[in-house]
Design a protein that fits this description.
Elements lengths: L1 H20 L5 E4 L14 E4 L5 E2 L7 E7 L9 E7 L8 H10 L1 E2 L6 H4 L1 E7 L2 E12 L13 E13 L2 E10 H6 L1 H9 L2 E2 L1
Antiparallel strand pairs: 1-2, 2-11, 3-4, 4-5, 5-10, 6-8, 7-8, 8-9, 9-10
Length: 197
Protein backbone atom coordinates (compact mmCIF):
# COMPACT_ATOMS: atom_id res chain seq x y z
CA UNK A 1 0.00 0.00 0.00
CA UNK A 2 2.81 2.36 0.95
CA UNK A 3 4.59 1.61 -2.35
CA UNK A 4 1.42 2.40 -4.35
CA UNK A 5 1.03 5.77 -2.59
CA UNK A 6 4.68 6.68 -3.32
CA UNK A 7 4.30 5.72 -7.01
CA UNK A 8 1.06 7.67 -7.28
CA UNK A 9 2.75 10.68 -5.68
CA UNK A 10 5.64 10.49 -8.17
CA UNK A 11 3.22 10.33 -11.10
CA UNK A 12 1.28 13.33 -9.75
CA UNK A 13 4.52 15.29 -9.41
CA UNK A 14 5.45 14.48 -13.03
CA UNK A 15 2.00 15.58 -14.23
CA UNK A 16 2.22 18.84 -12.27
CA UNK A 17 5.68 19.50 -13.66
CA UNK A 18 4.38 18.84 -17.17
CA UNK A 19 1.56 21.36 -16.66
CA UNK A 20 3.94 23.96 -15.31
CA UNK A 21 6.11 23.76 -18.44
CA UNK A 22 3.41 25.41 -20.55
CA UNK A 23 4.51 23.58 -23.67
CA UNK A 24 7.08 26.16 -24.75
CA UNK A 25 9.77 23.88 -26.08
CA UNK A 26 9.82 21.86 -22.87
CA UNK A 27 10.59 18.16 -22.90
CA UNK A 28 7.79 16.36 -21.09
CA UNK A 29 7.15 12.75 -20.18
CA UNK A 30 3.72 11.17 -20.38
CA UNK A 31 3.25 8.55 -17.67
CA UNK A 32 0.84 5.81 -18.59
CA UNK A 33 -2.21 5.09 -16.47
CA UNK A 34 -0.82 2.33 -14.22
CA UNK A 35 -4.30 1.24 -13.14
CA UNK A 36 -5.05 0.25 -16.74
CA UNK A 37 -1.58 -0.91 -17.79
CA UNK A 38 -1.02 -4.64 -18.10
CA UNK A 39 2.54 -4.21 -19.34
CA UNK A 40 5.62 -4.71 -17.19
CA UNK A 41 7.72 -2.59 -19.57
CA UNK A 42 9.80 0.00 -17.80
CA UNK A 43 10.00 3.53 -19.15
CA UNK A 44 7.80 6.38 -20.28
CA UNK A 45 6.99 8.20 -23.49
CA UNK A 46 8.80 11.55 -23.74
CA UNK A 47 8.30 14.37 -26.25
CA UNK A 48 9.24 17.98 -26.92
CA UNK A 49 6.32 20.37 -27.36
CA UNK A 50 7.12 23.04 -29.97
CA UNK A 51 7.39 26.75 -29.21
CA UNK A 52 4.13 28.59 -29.78
CA UNK A 53 1.83 25.75 -28.75
CA UNK A 54 -0.40 26.60 -25.78
CA UNK A 55 -0.75 23.82 -23.22
CA UNK A 56 -4.31 23.40 -21.93
CA UNK A 57 -5.67 21.43 -18.98
CA UNK A 58 -6.66 17.91 -20.06
CA UNK A 59 -10.43 17.55 -20.05
CA UNK A 60 -10.36 13.80 -19.25
CA UNK A 61 -8.03 11.20 -17.74
CA UNK A 62 -7.52 9.64 -21.16
CA UNK A 63 -6.08 12.90 -22.52
CA UNK A 64 -2.46 12.90 -21.44
CA UNK A 65 -1.72 16.14 -23.28
CA UNK A 66 -3.86 18.84 -24.86
CA UNK A 67 -2.67 21.87 -26.86
CA UNK A 68 -4.12 24.83 -28.70
CA UNK A 69 -2.25 25.87 -31.85
CA UNK A 70 -3.10 29.56 -32.39
CA UNK A 71 -5.03 30.31 -35.56
CA UNK A 72 -3.63 31.94 -38.66
CA UNK A 73 -5.03 35.33 -39.61
CA UNK A 74 -8.45 34.96 -41.24
CA UNK A 75 -9.17 31.47 -39.88
CA UNK A 76 -12.28 31.00 -37.69
CA UNK A 77 -10.61 29.11 -34.83
CA UNK A 78 -7.42 27.62 -33.42
CA UNK A 79 -6.25 24.13 -34.23
CA UNK A 80 -6.49 21.57 -31.41
CA UNK A 81 -4.10 18.72 -30.66
CA UNK A 82 -4.80 15.95 -28.17
CA UNK A 83 -2.64 12.99 -27.15
CA UNK A 84 -4.66 10.04 -25.84
CA UNK A 85 -3.61 6.99 -23.84
CA UNK A 86 -6.27 4.41 -22.92
CA UNK A 87 -4.11 1.65 -21.41
CA UNK A 88 -1.71 -1.08 -22.53
CA UNK A 89 -4.25 -3.05 -24.57
CA UNK A 90 -6.91 -0.39 -25.12
CA UNK A 91 -7.76 2.05 -27.91
CA UNK A 92 -8.21 -0.34 -30.81
CA UNK A 93 -5.99 -1.52 -33.66
CA UNK A 94 -3.91 0.96 -35.64
CA UNK A 95 -5.84 0.54 -38.91
CA UNK A 96 -9.21 0.83 -37.16
CA UNK A 97 -8.18 4.23 -35.80
CA UNK A 98 -6.76 5.39 -39.13
CA UNK A 99 -10.01 4.41 -40.89
CA UNK A 100 -12.11 6.17 -38.22
CA UNK A 101 -10.10 9.39 -38.52
CA UNK A 102 -10.38 9.36 -42.31
CA UNK A 103 -14.16 8.82 -42.03
CA UNK A 104 -14.43 12.04 -39.98
CA UNK A 105 -13.49 14.08 -43.07
CA UNK A 106 -15.80 14.33 -46.09
CA UNK A 107 -14.81 15.49 -49.58
CA UNK A 108 -16.73 18.41 -51.14
CA UNK A 109 -17.19 16.42 -54.38
CA UNK A 110 -18.49 13.34 -52.54
CA UNK A 111 -15.50 11.18 -53.41
CA UNK A 112 -14.09 8.82 -50.74
CA UNK A 113 -11.70 10.51 -48.31
CA UNK A 114 -9.75 7.24 -48.20
CA UNK A 115 -8.63 7.94 -51.78
CA UNK A 116 -7.30 11.39 -50.82
CA UNK A 117 -5.77 10.57 -47.40
CA UNK A 118 -2.03 10.15 -47.03
CA UNK A 119 -0.95 7.41 -44.62
CA UNK A 120 2.59 6.46 -43.75
CA UNK A 121 4.33 4.09 -41.36
CA UNK A 122 7.83 4.91 -40.16
CA UNK A 123 10.23 4.40 -37.26
CA UNK A 124 10.77 7.25 -34.80
CA UNK A 125 13.49 6.68 -32.22
CA UNK A 126 12.82 2.94 -32.40
CA UNK A 127 9.02 3.29 -32.16
CA UNK A 128 6.61 2.31 -34.95
CA UNK A 129 4.55 5.36 -35.93
CA UNK A 130 1.60 5.39 -38.33
CA UNK A 131 0.42 8.81 -39.52
CA UNK A 132 -2.60 10.00 -41.50
CA UNK A 133 -3.18 13.35 -43.20
CA UNK A 134 -6.53 14.23 -44.81
CA UNK A 135 -8.25 17.48 -45.80
CA UNK A 136 -11.89 18.33 -46.48
CA UNK A 137 -14.98 18.99 -44.39
CA UNK A 138 -14.51 17.92 -40.77
CA UNK A 139 -17.65 16.09 -39.59
CA UNK A 140 -16.73 14.41 -36.28
CA UNK A 141 -19.16 14.38 -33.34
CA UNK A 142 -19.25 17.61 -31.35
CA UNK A 143 -18.74 15.46 -28.23
CA UNK A 144 -18.38 11.67 -27.94
CA UNK A 145 -21.77 9.94 -28.03
CA UNK A 146 -23.77 13.01 -29.06
CA UNK A 147 -25.87 13.18 -32.24
CA UNK A 148 -24.66 16.67 -33.21
CA UNK A 149 -21.76 16.79 -35.63
CA UNK A 150 -19.32 19.40 -36.81
CA UNK A 151 -19.56 20.67 -40.37
CA UNK A 152 -16.31 22.58 -40.86
CA UNK A 153 -15.32 23.09 -44.49
CA UNK A 154 -11.69 23.54 -45.55
CA UNK A 155 -10.27 21.73 -42.51
CA UNK A 156 -7.39 19.32 -42.17
CA UNK A 157 -6.85 16.36 -39.85
CA UNK A 158 -3.43 14.98 -38.99
CA UNK A 159 -3.15 12.07 -36.62
CA UNK A 160 -0.73 9.40 -35.51
CA UNK A 161 -0.53 6.15 -33.59
CA UNK A 162 2.71 5.67 -31.67
CA UNK A 163 3.31 2.08 -30.62
CA UNK A 164 5.24 1.77 -27.35
CA UNK A 165 6.10 -1.13 -25.02
CA UNK A 166 3.32 0.14 -22.70
CA UNK A 167 0.69 0.33 -25.43
CA UNK A 168 -0.37 2.77 -28.12
CA UNK A 169 -0.60 6.54 -27.80
CA UNK A 170 -2.95 8.34 -30.19
CA UNK A 171 -2.39 11.89 -31.47
CA UNK A 172 -5.07 13.89 -33.24
CA UNK A 173 -4.64 17.41 -34.61
CA UNK A 174 -7.55 19.18 -36.32
CA UNK A 175 -8.02 22.73 -37.53
CA UNK A 176 -8.63 25.12 -40.42
CA UNK A 177 -6.36 24.44 -43.40
CA UNK A 178 -4.40 27.72 -43.23
CA UNK A 179 -3.70 27.30 -39.51
CA UNK A 180 -2.68 23.69 -40.06
CA UNK A 181 -0.26 24.83 -42.74
CA UNK A 182 1.23 27.34 -40.34
CA UNK A 183 2.00 24.59 -37.80
CA UNK A 184 2.88 21.81 -40.25
CA UNK A 185 6.59 21.64 -39.47
CA UNK A 186 5.89 21.90 -35.74
CA UNK A 187 3.61 18.87 -35.89
CA UNK A 188 6.24 16.90 -37.81
CA UNK A 189 8.90 17.86 -35.27
CA UNK A 190 6.55 16.93 -32.40
CA UNK A 191 6.01 13.43 -33.80
CA UNK A 192 9.74 12.98 -34.42
CA UNK A 193 10.52 13.92 -30.82
CA UNK A 194 8.69 10.94 -29.32
CA UNK A 195 10.98 8.62 -27.44
CA UNK A 196 10.36 5.77 -25.01
CA UNK A 197 12.90 5.45 -22.22
Amino acid sequence: MKRFIICAGIQLAVLLASSACGGKGATVSMPSNTAQSNSSAAGELHYKAPDGWVKEPSSSAMRVAQYKLPKAEGDPEDAALVVYYFGATQGGAVQVNVDRWISQVQQPDGSPSKDKAKTETSAVNGLKVTTVDVSGTYTAEMAPGTPSQRNDANYRLRAAVIETPKGNYFLKLVGPAKTMGRWEQSFTDFVKSFEFK
